[in-house]
Each structure stands twice: as C-alpha cells, then as structure tokens.
Specification:
Blueprint lengths: L23 E7 L5 H9 L8 E8 L4 E7 L3 H11 L3 E7 L5 H22 L1 H17 L6 H28 L7 E4 H11 L6 E4 L6 E4 L1 H19 L4 E10 L4 E8 L27 H11 L3 E5 L3 E8 L11
Parallel strand pairs: 6-8
Antiparallel strand pairs: 1-3, 1-4, 2-3, 5-7, 8-9, 9-11, 10-11
The structure holds adenosine-5'-diphosphate and magnesium ion (MG).
C-alpha cells in the first residue's frame, strides 16, 4: 500500500468542512541533499523567518522528489524560503484542507493528548481524596452506619471508581514514554493488577500456576492487564462468571502468547473491526481509549493483539527478546 498524490478538479458536496487558519500550500522539489534527519527536524520546527511551517512531508522515491505541505503567510514567502535554503522549487500551489471525519478525529485526539497532563494534575489529586475519604468512612463507621447511608457510600464509591478508570484511560492513552525494559515476572504483574482492580464476588479469576520471566516494561503491561480485566468485568456485569488468563510459551518462535478470556456475551460481530479505534465505546461512561492504549503498549513491545468471540478472548503475542528490535521501543 502506498500514499499517492492526486490532483483533480473537484465538485464538493456532502458533509465536508473547509477551513484554514494560515493559508496552506503544497510544493514539490528534488530531494537534493536533504537527509531524513534534516527533514524530520523541519516538521518539528517552528515557523522560519519567512513565516513558513512544514506540516507534512511526502517523498517520491522513484523520482527522488519531495512534496511538502506548508503553512505560510503567502506563496511569495515560500519561494523566498526555498531561495534561502538553496532549493529550486518545481511548483507551489495554494490548497485548502478538507476536514474529513478522520482528520477531525485526529485533531480531537491531539487536543485530548494536550488535555491529559492537565487532567492528571488537576483531577487525580482531589479524586484520590474523595476515594480515600469513602474508604475511611466505610472503615470507621461500618457498624454504626444505617443501611441507607451505606448504600449512598457504595454509590459514591462506584461513581468515583468510574471517574478513576476514565482518567487513567485518558492519561495512559496520551502517555508515549519509551519502554523501561527489565527482566520481569508476568505472574507478579498479574497479581499486582488484581490487587488494584476490584474483582467483584460474582467473578472467579483463574490465573496460571506457571510463571513466565522475560523482558518487558512492567508498569505498561500492568496498565494493559488493568484495561483487559476491567473490560472483562464490565462485560460480565452482575452475572456469575469468570476471567481466565493463560500463558503459552512458543519456544520455537521465541514468543509468548497470553490469553485473557471472559464469560461475557462477547462483542457483536459488526463492532469487532472498530474496537481498537480510539474513542470507540459502547459504554455510557466509557472513553474508548482502553483497547487503543493496549494496542499501543503491545506494538511498542513488538507484539500483536487480537480479539475473538465465543468465548471472548484477547490474544497477545509478545517476543521474548525485544532488544533485537531497538527501533520499536522509542
Ligand atoms: N471483554 C469484552 N467483552 C465485550 N466487549 C468488549 C470487551 N472488551 C472491549 N469490549 C468492547 O470494546 C469497546 C472498547 O473498549 P475500550 O477501548 O476498553 O473502551 P471502553 O472500555 O472505555 O468502552 C467497549 O466499549 C466494548 O464495547
Ligand atoms: Mg475499557
């Protein structure tokens, strides 16, 4: 699959949204001595002295040509920018971006990323005060509390847990730190997760007897199990059910397969292709960021994640020796 630049006359109809803050242009020129390193810096740099910012770059290997999407005050400023860099432009043309649903979603996700650090600072602390106070009230006045009061406290506790899950989903999705690889015990991470996620009494957890030790980022893998177990708990709901975790060491391929299975009703077939899409959720208080976070974490570890129904099973495949893929970790 490739990306192609196609220029055509268009007739606009339907749901599109054309707008631009600074005018946007496309230009095309020879790569010359521009190296991938220099190009990457271009995109991440603020506007130059001519007011030109590089938004995106596309390279045509066959013709050794570079096509740039730029924001600039005028076409003139881009010609001058190229003159200054000693590059000869073949064409510059002004365009307007058509904001498709996909682009609007990407923009929404960018805003979400920016919001997440504020959320983590401003909401996490007061929320933990509320959650601790509920725990203290439950402990101190357990015997003297009326049933009605206990019910209200239980409601507050459930609501604050939901808020906590949403905040963690947003923060974890936006977090893009590089991996901290250490030799870890998979079983230990699962036990730690189970200690933090409240498993209701109607759900039986089955975890493997055998342990697997290999190199992974334990904090991230804990986030992953936390998401998968929380989803399984939501799916089972108030019914009696179970969550089973299995490890399967594939010695030949040097890979480890992990499965998280639940007895819930599964995912409607029509929705299966969408569940890793950021912001896709079927829950009233869902963020739709749990599975996308899991996918990011697994892919950063050089692995794969997939989900099948009957029974609902999440399958993770991780390489034992990630250091063999240094590029993936950053
Ligand atoms: N174990 C599961 N059983 C049934 N449906 C699931 C399961 N895990 C995920 N899903 C579906 O995938 C959607 C996306 O999950 P996720 O990304 O974790 O977001 P959220 O949990 O906030 O909805 C859920 O809303 C649900 O419809
Ligand atoms: Mg979730």
């Amino acid at each position: 699959m490739g990306i192609f630049l196609c220029i055509s006359d268009i007739f606009l109809s339907g749901k599109t949204d054309i707008e631009a803050a600074l005018p946007t242009f496309i230009d095309g020129h020879k790569m010359k001595d521009l190296t991938p390193d220099r190009l990457e810096k271009l995109v991440n740099s603020p506007a130059d002295s001519f007011g030109v910012t590089h938004v995106e770059l596309f390279y045509n290997k066959k013709e050794d040509k570079l096509y740039c999407i730029l924001e600039a005050p005028s076409e003139e400023s881009i010609w001058r920018h190229h003159e200054n860099a000693g590059l000869k432009c073949e064409f510059i043309t002004e365009v307007q971006q058509i904001k498709t649903d996909k682009i609007l979603k990407t923009e929404k996700l960018q805003i979400l990323g920016e919001m997440s650090s504020r959320i983590s600072h401003d909401l996490r602390n007061p929320l933990s005060i509320i959650r601790n106070s509920i725990d203290i009230m439950n402990m101190r006045w357990k015997d003297s509390m009326s049933n009605e009061m206990a019910e209200y406290l239980a409601k507050m506790s459930r609501a604050s847990s939901s808020i906590n899950i949403m905040i963690e989903d947003i923060v974890n999705f936006a977090r893009t730190q590089s991996l901290r690889l250490e030799n870890n015990s998979l079983l230990l991470v699962i036990h730690r997760t189970i200690d933090t996620v409240h498993i209701p009494n109607n759900i039986k957890m089955k975890i493997p007897q055998n342990d697997v030790m290999f190199e992974f980022d334990s904090a991230k893998i804990e986030v992953l199990f936390n998401n998968l177990i929380t989803n399984a708990i939501h799916a089972i709901g108030g019914n009696d059910g179970g969550i089973t975790i299995r490890f399967n060491e594939k010695d030949v391929e040097d890979k480890i397969e992990i499965q998280v299975q639940d007895s819930g009703p599964g995912i409607p077939e029509g929705l299966l292709p969408r569940i890793f899409e950021p912001l896709f959720t079927t829950k009233q208080y869902g963020t739709g960021l749990g599975l996308p976070s899991c996918k990011n974490i697994i892919e950063q570890h050089g692995g794969t994640i997939s989900i099948t129904n009957n029974p609902t099973t999440v399958t993770l495949v991780l390489p034992r020796h990630l250091r063999a893929y240094p590029k993936i970790q950053s």
